[in-house]
Amino acid sequence: MRRRAMAMAALAASWGTIPLIVRGVDLAAEQLAAARLWLGALSVLGVLAIRGELRIRRGDPIRRVVLLGILLAVHWAAFFWSIKTTTVAVALVLVYLAPIAMATLAGPVLGEPLHPRSIIALITALAGVVLVARPGAGVTVEGVVAGLIAAVTFAALVLIGKPASQRLGGLKLAGMQMTVAALALTPWAIQAAPRLGEFWWQLGILGVALTGFGLFVYWALVSTLPVATVAILSYMEPASAVVWAAIFLGERGDVLTWLGVALVLLAGLGSTARQPVPTVG
Rounded distance, CA 174 to CA 211, Å? Predict the structure, then answer.
């Protein structure tokens, strides 16, 4: 399990580069999300077509996949709306309440026990994100509600998606889920279409690599890792964003910021301890 946990940590850290890419793309948040989903969906569907796995088989959990696609679209829309109507710091802290919820609910929903070590790691990681983001002024009711919706849908995605990933495999689930989410955001994709050529390389990295390939790897790992481990390692994304910003943007942060990063790394190391991986039917 340790190797899979390290792969999840690396994937989450790679997603920490997304804010850097977004800064260089002059598109509305909804248009950017739609373009990202369509590029990700098309890339994964292309791979599925080459492998001869594009068809839907009897027994595939289609209703669950449709629900996951809708949840993904709502999650990103709510997260972006929270960022637009409150501060990035507040939005991040609200959204990253989700790992606490998913780890806690993994017991009653999936039959996965929450070990004491995982509880300590989750609290440590959340404290680290609060130090990194440090929400202050700029809180709005609208932004908080949107952030909480983003958190709820984030937790639901993992709890509902894990059984589907075990039945379909990461590649097929990623392709089907992103297709549903992309279709839901098609109006914004149409708005963005005339300007996609201006940002072809940024959108290529964001859509094909970080979204298409990234979501495939994510579901492949979620299918084999305990939800508590996935929850803890999710905090690597906002923590790593600080590191990438320091390297590429010269945003050095302060002592409390780096203390927060250290706490998230410490929690991540604690989550890689060997634990039994329950199988969900």
Answer: 9
78-106 pLDDT, tens digit each? 888 888 788 777 888 889 999 999 999 99
Asked if residues 210 and 55 have their Cβ atoms less than 8 Å apart, the reply is no
d(CA 217, CA 215): 5
139 domain residue, yes or no: yes
Domains in the chain, number: 1
Is there a domain that residue 276 lies in?
Answer: no
**Residue 151 · residue 111 · CB < 8 Å:** no
Q: Which among 244, 233, 238, 237 has a CA at the least distance from the CA of 268?
A: 233
- Domain span including residue 157: 2-271
**Global confidence as pTM:** 0.89
- In a domain, residue 172? The reply is yes
Chain-centre distance for alpha carbon 50: 27
Token code pair at residue 176 = 């089907």
Could you tell me the CA-to-CA distances from 212 to 38, 39, 81, 186, 259 in Å, in that order? 9, 7, 23, 17, 32
C-alpha 63/C-alpha 78 separation (Å) is 22
